[in-house]
């Protein structure tokens, strides 16, 4: 028995499919250009929650999946910068523990620190992937080669993002974008992967 199956697409469906393929290929090419990452803290490295402890201190939670990806990227000589409006000593400790040396806290105009980081390493906008979640991140996201955000971001950030991660901030969103870049460039899996 021979089965003859024919699938028919409308012109708009074909056009939409072509557009999706072009967008995917463009995204893949952009990933291959990335040499550096810029991240916010609250809502990106964390879920945005602040836990108030009995003695009056605040506490944030970060994910080890993100930490693994950060360490791996730094070992492969990617540059990573964290720019945040806050200044939590425990966050600072965690960021430095991961090996990130470009950490800017209490920043009110993030674009200035973004430009400082870019100049320090002689980077071009298209070589930077920036992930943010709120309005203060928009200016630096708009000029980055790739702008990304977690799904728990504000609407204004989602509107300007090239990529909305399906993974929430504080749950592995940072790892998601680092892993995508490194996989696109063939630097994710190697002999060192098991020892990190």
Can you offer a commentary on this structure?
The protein is globular and about 75 Å long. It has a six-stranded parallel sheet, sandwiched between helices. Strands 2-3 form a two-stranded antiparallel sheet. The longest helix has 23 residues, at 11-33. The termini are far apart. With 196 residues, it is α/β, with parallel strands linked by helices. The mean pLDDT is 90. It has one domain: 3-Layer(aba) Sandwich (Rossmann fold). The chain has helices spanning 11-33, 64-75, 89-97, 110-120, 138-143, 155-160, 173-184; strands at 36-39, 51-52, 58-59, 79-83, 102-104, 128-131, 146-149, 163-164. Helix 1 (11-33) packs across helix 7 (173-184) and helix 2 (64-75) packs parallel to helix 7 (173-184). The protein is 40% helix and 13% strand. Its cofactor is Mg(2+). Keywords: Hydrolase, Magnesium, Metal-binding. It holds the Pfam family Hydrolase_3. Its EC number is 3.1.3.45. GO terms for molecular function: 3-deoxy-manno-octulosonate-8-phosphatase activity; metal ion binding; N-acylneuraminate cytidylyltransferase activity.
List the helices and strands and how they pair.
Layout (H helix, E strand, L loop, with lengths): L10 H23 L2 E4 L11 E2 L5 E2 L4 H12 L3 E5 L5 H9 L4 E3 L5 H11 L7 E4 L6 H6 L2 E4 L5 H6 L2 E2 L8 H12 L12
Parallel strand pairs: 1-4, 1-6, 4-5, 6-7, 7-8
Antiparallel strand pairs: 2-3
Helix pairs in contact: 1-7, 2-7
């Amino acid at each position: 028995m021979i089965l003859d199956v024919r699938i028919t697409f409308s012109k708009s469906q074909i056009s939409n499919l072509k557009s999706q393929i072009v967008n995917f290929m463009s995204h893949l090419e952009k990933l291959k250009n990335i040499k550096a990452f810029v991240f916010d803290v609250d809502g990106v490295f964390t879920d945005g929650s602040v836990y108030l402890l009995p003695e009056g201190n605040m506490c944030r939670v970060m994910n080890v999946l993100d930490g693994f990806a950060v360490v791996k990227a730094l070992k492969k000589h990617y540059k990573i910068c964290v720019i945040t409006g806050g200044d939590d000593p425990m966050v600072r400790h965690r960021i430095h523990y991961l090996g990130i040396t470009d950490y800017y806290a209490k920043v009110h105009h993030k674009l200035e620190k973004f430009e400082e980081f870019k100049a320090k390493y002689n980077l071009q906008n298209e070589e930077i992937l920036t992930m943010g979640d709120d309005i203060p991140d928009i200016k630096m996201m708009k000029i980055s080669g790739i702008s990304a955000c977690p799904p728990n971001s504000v609407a204004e950030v989602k509107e300007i993002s090239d990529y909305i991660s399906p993974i929430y901030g504080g749950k592995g969103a940072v790892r998601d974008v680092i892993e995508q870049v490194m996989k696109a460039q063939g630097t994710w899996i190697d002999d060192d992967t098991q020892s990190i």
